[in-house]
Each structure stands twice: as C-alpha cells, then as structure tokens.
C-alpha cells in the first residue's frame, strides 16, 4: 500500500484503507493543544495517516486565571472527533465504529482538583498561570529539585498556603490529559511523561519519588491535616501498557451519534511534551526536540543526571520513563502571529489580500534578508508571565535604540528571534552543564515555511535542527503512534519501535547552524538579556 506521513495525504489504495477503518485496524490519537484540539487516525502502518479532524478553541482569562471550562473540553472533543469522522466519510465513504487502539494527549501540568463525587472544585488552572511563585520556590528548596510554577504540585501547595476552602475536599487531582482519559475510561492514570510534570518521579520512572512524597506530606501536615499526595495523584504507567478501555459513557461522550462502540483499548494519556518527542523520534539520549506553538519548549534526553538544580530547567521523562531536561517557556509564537495579522490586514486594505499561509511565507522570507543581529531591534513575545525570564506577567514589546535599523526584514528577524529568546536562555544553562546534543528536532506551525524558522533556530541553539514531514501536526500523530505501540510493546522498546517501524526512510531535512547566524543571535541574546529590565519595568508601569 502506498502510504504518506502528511496529515493531508490520501492513501493510494482507498479501498484497503476503508476496510482497515471498518475492521478497526487503526489507531486514533487526540491532542488538546492551547488553540486547537486535533484528532489523527493512522493505519496499521503508523506512518499512514488516514484522516484528521480539528476544533479551534481558546483559553479564557477569568478572575485573573487562565482556564478552559469543562463544557469547553467536552464540546471541543466532540467537535474534533466529528470533524475526523466527516473526513473519513469524505475520503472513504465509511463511518468508524471502533479502533484498534486510542490515546489522549494534552497540555502538560496545571491543576484539575476533584472531590469524592468527581466534581471539579475550582476552575481548571492551566500551565499558563504564574500565581504559584511562593509554593514553587518553597518546594524547590525543600526537595532540592526544581518545581516550576506550572507544575500540578505547585498549584496544590499554593492552595494549601493560601488556605483555599476547597483543599479539605480534594480527593484527586490530575492534568487535562488525565481528566479526558478518565472521562473515556473511568481510570485515574497518567503516562509517566505527563505524571513527571505533576510531581517528581523515581529514577526508573516506575512511580512518584517516595522520598519527596514523604517530604511533601510533612510540609503540609499542620496546614492540611490528612492530605497525602500519594492518595491524590494518578497511577503512573509507561508507554506500551494498556491504561483502560473505552466505556459506553466514554464512547457516547466522544460520539453522541452512537456509532462508536465501547471496548477500545487506550494507551496511557500523555502530555504534549511526550507526544512531541515521539513525533520527532527524540526519545534516546543526546536527542532533543523543540515544540513551538502558544508556548515553546525544548526537551533534551539526558545521558546522566544534571549536576545541580536550575530554576530554568524542569527534569521530566520520556513516555518510556527516561530522564529529560525540559526548558519550558510560557510564550511562543502568539505575538508573532499577531504581527502577521497586522501585515495581512495591511495587504488586504491595499487591495492585495493574501492567505494566512502566504502572509507568513512573505514575512518569513523577508526575515532571511535581515541583519544577523536583527539590526539592533529587540522583540519580546511575553503575553503571559515568563518564569524563565523572571517575569510574573507579560508585556509584549518591540524595543530599539535611535541607531537601530528599523526595516521589515530586521523587524521580522527580531520577531522570530523573540520566539526563541527565552528558550535560548534556558538552553545556555544546559550548555553550562555539559549536556551534549547530536541533533534537535523541531515541530510546530512556524516550521511550515521551509528553511526559515528552522535555520534561525539552528543559529540560536548552535546545533543542527531537523524538521520532518509531520512538523506542523506532530502532537496528535504522536499520541496515535503511542496508541499503535500498544500492540508492539511486549517485543520492542519504544526507541527501537520508532526507529524500525515509524521513522525508517522518514523524509527529514536537517539544517546546520550558519556561523553568521550563531554570532548574530548571540549578540541579539546579550541585548535581550539586558533588556529584560525594561520588560520588568513595563509590567510594573502598565
């Protein structure tokens, strides 16, 4: 069968694909990202993308909390699944009623706390919130292990510190992926990668760190008597382990039409960082990946533990439980997209309307003509707070001196550099730790314009950057691959499975760092670091 790894690809043998769909010889992945919920259906060969679906959504800022409602989550799941089913029907004239396996992925971290009846106690607090500074600092000091503000345990401990009334009623808390998986299966479990962003896990990735569990329980003993972290956290499972089966209620939630049947096995739910690693084949030591969207983060699989804790670096795991250094930045490409919207509207007003993709293409190509250091311009993309940069809140800014060269090319290069700026600060810390990297894989929408963001990222990291065919749709496909892995885990580890069954002959383009870009970005980053004082002043003043 002729296959394709592109989300919009149509297999040459549609009849065989239709039969696989009807017979359930497929795997379904669903990922809840910051701005889109995506569904991806693959065949027995996981590189064969049979159909896709999506639903646009957006977080809400309510009472100074970034959140999504439970209705948003449920309606979004249904819409994305319905869009996938419609795509299947258009392509193959069949309707799926079952799958060989399924999996759910979502934004990592955050806080969904439930009482004994499974009722949500406070609105979902997403990874984007930066209200847990005191808790994160105290936990990091007590544990000797960096606990960032967005981690679930920081949210729980901040609620304890603030004496929030709901704390006494908590009987479980989880991530977004864990919540959706519970809706579909009734099981309170997490993949080890997602779990490692809730609470530190053991060195072997088999469960939570018992020493730190004990330390946390001692820390809250007086403020919240009876609160035991181990009683509240989801069960931890590695990739390849069955994590439950689709219940009748879960099937009805996902597909209100009634066509979807119960009984489909699900893989452990994972975070978007884990699916990004899978989608870029970056699960072995000395490999890494960058995922760029509303947020931007880098994952580097470690050969050995870091020498010390750093506030810029999370230590999490791959979906198989191997240690990973994570540089997570709350702000990614949203500000860049806003500028593209301004220029797109200008083109429209001038009578030369362009598609969104065409606007990005023009602006990104223009950036390549910019000076290597962006002509002295600085662009800060901080719409939200940015702990890596020491910012409690964000104020997007473009800053220049009187002798800076303000051109469209320099402005767009500065905007692209701005997407990578805070990330580069964290990656410099890993350089200081002696962490070695053979290749960085990249995925996300900004890499759709071939060779531009990829080249500038290579210069920013001073490392080769690879982009594959699935660069713009990696997450939902990544969790579909993890679902496919359920049938192979008894015979092969995850790294070998990806090498031998998924990425053999994959179409990957690698760009080496250009010395001029490396030097130019280094000069930009020096100014960027110094200019963070102006960002902090803007937060105070505006």
From TrEMBL:
The keyword Iron-sulfur does not apply. GO terms for molecular function: kinase activity. Keywords: Carbohydrate metabolism, Kinase, Transferase, Xylose metabolism. Residues 28-254 form the Carbohydrate kinase FGGY N-terminal domain. SUPFAM superfamilies: Actin-like ATPase domain. Pfam families: FGGY_C, FGGY_N. Gene3D superfamilies: 3.30.420.40. It comes from the Bacteria. CDD domains: ASKHA_NBD_FGGY_BaXK-like (cd07809). Residues 289-485 form the Carbohydrate kinase FGGY C-terminal domain. The keyword Glycosyltransferase does not apply. Belongs to the FGGY kinase family. This is FGGY-family carbohydrate kinase. It comes from Agromyces indicus. The lineage of its organism: Bacteria, Bacillati, Actinomycetota, Actinomycetes, Micrococcales.
């Amino acid at each position: 069968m002729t296959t394709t790894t592109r989300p919009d690809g149509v297999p040459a043998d549609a009849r065989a694909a239709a039969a696989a769909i009807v017979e359930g010889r497929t795997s379904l992945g669903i990922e809840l990202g910051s701005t889109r919920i995506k569904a991806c259906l693959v065949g027995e060969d996981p590189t064969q993308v049979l159909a896709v679906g999506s639903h646009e959504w957006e977080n809400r800022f309510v009472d100074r909390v970034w959140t999504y409602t439970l209705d948003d989550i449920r309606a979004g799941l249904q819409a994305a699944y319905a869009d996938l089913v419609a795509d299947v029907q258009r392509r193959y004239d069949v309707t799926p009623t079952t799958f060989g396996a399924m999996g759910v992925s979502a934004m990592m971290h955050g806080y969904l706390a439930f009482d004994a009846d499974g009722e949500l106690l406070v609105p979902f607090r997403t990874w984007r919130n930066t209200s847990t500074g005191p808790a994160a600092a105290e936990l990091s000091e007590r544990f000797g292990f960096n606990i960032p503000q967005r981690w679930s345990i920081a949210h729980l401990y901040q609620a304890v510190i603030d004496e929030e009334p709901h704390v006494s009623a908590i009987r479980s808390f989880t991530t977004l992926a864990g919540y959706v998986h519970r809706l579909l299966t009734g099981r309170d479990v997490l993949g080890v990668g997602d779990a490692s962003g809730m609470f530190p896990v053991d060195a072997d990735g088999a469960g939570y760190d018992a020493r730190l569990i004990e330390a946390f329980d001692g820390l809250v003993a007086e403020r919240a008597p009876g609160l035991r972290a181990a009683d509240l956290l989801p069960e931890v499972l590695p990739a390849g382990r069955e994590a439950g089966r689709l219940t009748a209620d879960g099937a009805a939630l996902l597909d209100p039409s009634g066509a979807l049947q119960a009984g489909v096995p699900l893989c452990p739910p994972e975070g978007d960082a884990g699916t990004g690693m899978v989608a870029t084949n970056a699960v072995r030591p000395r490999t890494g990946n960058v995922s760029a969207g509303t947020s931007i983060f880098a994952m580097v699989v470690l050969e050995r533990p870091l020498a010390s804790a750093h506030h810029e670096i999370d230590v999490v795991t791959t979906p198989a439980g191997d240690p990973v250094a994570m540089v997570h930045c709350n702000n990614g490409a949203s500000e860049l997209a806003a500028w593209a919207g301004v220029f797109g509207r200008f083109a429209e007003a001038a009578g030369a309307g362009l598609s969104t993709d065409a606007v990005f293409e023009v602006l990104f190509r223009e950036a390549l003509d910019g000076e290597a250091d962006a002509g002295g311009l600085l662009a800060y993309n901080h719409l939200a707070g940015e702990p890596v940069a020491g910012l409690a809140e964000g104020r997007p800014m473009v800053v220049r001196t009187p002798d800076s060269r303000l051109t469209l090319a320099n402005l767009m290069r500065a905007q692209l550099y701005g997407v990578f700026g805070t990330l580069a600060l964290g990656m410099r810390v890993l350089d200081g730790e002696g962490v070695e990297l053979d290749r960085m894989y990249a995925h996300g929408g900004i890499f759709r314009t071939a060779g531009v963001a990829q080249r500038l990222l290579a210069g920013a990291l001073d490392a080769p950057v690879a982009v594959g065919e699935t660069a713009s749709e990696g997450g939902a496909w990544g969790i579909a691959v993890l679902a496919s892995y359920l049938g192979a885990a008894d015979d092969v580890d995850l790294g070998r499975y990806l090498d031998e069954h998924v990425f053999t002959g994959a179409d990957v383009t690698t760009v080496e760092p250009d010395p001029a870009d490396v030097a130019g970005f280094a000069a930009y980053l020096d100014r960027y670091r110094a200019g963070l004082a102006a960002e902090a002043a803007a937060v105070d003043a505006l």
